[in-house]
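Journal club prep — side note

Before the paper discussion, L.F. wants everyone to see what a predicted structure for a comparable chain looks like in token form. Sequence:
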Amino acid sequence: MKVSIAYDHAGTRFAEVLKPEIAKAGHELVFLNPDVAFDDYPDAAEVLAIAILEGKAERGILVCGSGAGVSISANKFPGIRAAVCHDTYTAHQGVEHDQMNILCLGERVIGEELARSIVRSFLEAEPSTEERHQRRSRKIDSLENNYFKK
């Protein structure tokens, strides 16, 4: 799977820690950040969301200070399902039940070892094919189609 990571100035340390985790898990890293971290988290979220929407990556990881800013920004793009996850359960459940395609982390909130575990849970998870999860996913799509301006 192609996995991308993007971050702002508050996520640079985690980005360096997490890049090897992506490779260790057997995935291809699609690196999007410029030589210097983005100053503003919406810029990181935009680059990553567009990469997913254009098929350059299948999943992504966004890092900022809290995870909230990148999550809010990424969710402004139709087709993106981004969530802040500061535990392993939410990271895999978000993929399995909610078809989350972007994991958002807060470097100022959790430690490196937990971040590594969360990323592994996110990358190992597969979307559920159970009807109840598919039904809920279709409802999310419907909300997006009804309320996003086209």
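L.F.'s comment for the group: The chain has a mean pLDDT of 94. Keep this in mind when we get to the figures.
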